[in-house]
Amino acid sequence: MKFYDIFNGDADGICALHQLRLEEPRDAELVTGVKRDIGLVARIDAQAGDSLTVLDISHRSNAAAVARALHMGATVEYFDHHATAELPQHPAFRPHIDTAPDVCTSLIVDQHLAGRHRLWAVVAAFGDNLVESAIRAAQPLQLDHTELARLHELGEAINYNAYGESVEDLHYHPADLYQVIAPYRDPRHFIFDEPVFEVLKQAGAEDMARAEETPPEFVTDAAALYVLPDASWSRRVNGVFSNRLAQAEPQRAHAVLVTKGDGYVVSVRAPRNNPTGAEVLCSGFETGGGRQAAAGINRLPQQDFARFVAAFRAAYK
């Protein structure tokens, strides 16, 4: 019998797993990667008696691998907030899925654990650009403004670390970052005790400064689109840059494209004032998907650029 913890490498995936393992420590094999590396269940060869905990990766992208694991006799517990395929009706499958636009996986885990490690759910919600949800979750904790601001910074820093074409683009492998976080029950202690936070914060600020020098390809009252160059810094910063744009102009949808060979990697943020439509937009393109408020396309060929721009403009006008 083997245990597997399979999780997105961003703030939501890491903090969701951290909450679970604070509550129920387990010696498990960690399976993770960059944020867009979501077909993770297929990496393992599940056998009878194995236990898989899956967090913050789309069931739609892992449905076949989950079905195989269940067929082999493994149990699968699934926490997620992305769009799903038809869920298995199987006694060994335990889903905890909520696709509401103001929910992230860590908030689902927080509800599952009755709020016993909520500070980390707040960090994750901030990292996932669910600022209002983070503040709402934090209300019973009686945090002051400075503490909330630091948790916001930490969420963004962990999330920033997940973006890249490969783990070579990242400052820390997500599995290594999780293991650094794992001893800390309180994220405020992590912030003050671990140099990792300052490293990510400083690196993120440098990358963000470059992104903010990039003019938009177009901007209207309803939508704006940016194209960043093919560079490690732009691959690292595109998610946090997208979130910052969404925070600054909540009435506007944003698309940030990072040049990749003869195509692009796409991040879309729906308007925060009406956080819908991003998943539908991106799912209209091969390799696209996500959730209502935030979605992406892993590979947009150059010849589809004009079609994407037209679809983006039509979705948000």
Topology of this structure?
Layout lengths: L2 E5 L3 H13 L5 E3 L19 E5 L3 H13 L3 E6 L12 E5 L7 H8 L5 H10 L3 H8 L6 H16 L13 H8 L5 H7 L1 H18 L5 E2 L3 E6 L3 H17 L4 E8 L2 E7 L8 H6 L4 E3 L3 E8 L3 H11 L2
Parallel strand pairs: 1-2, 1-3, 3-4, 4-5, 7-8
Antiparallel strand pairs: 6-7, 8-9, 9-11, 10-11
Helix pairs in contact: 1-3, 1-4, 3-4, 4-5, 4-6, 6-9, 8-9, 9-10
Q: What does this entry look like structurally?
A:
- The protein is of the alpha/beta class.
- Helix content is 43%, strand content 18%.
- The protein has helices at 11-23, 59-71, 105-112, 118-127, 131-138, 145-160, 174-181, 187-193, 195-212, 232-248, 278-283, 305-315, and strands spanning 3-7, 29-31, 51-55, 75-80, 93-97, 218-219, 223-228, 253-260, 263-269, 288-290, 294-301.
- Strand 1 (3-7), helix 1 (11-23) and strand 2 form a beta-alpha-beta unit.
- The N and C termini lie far apart (53 Å).
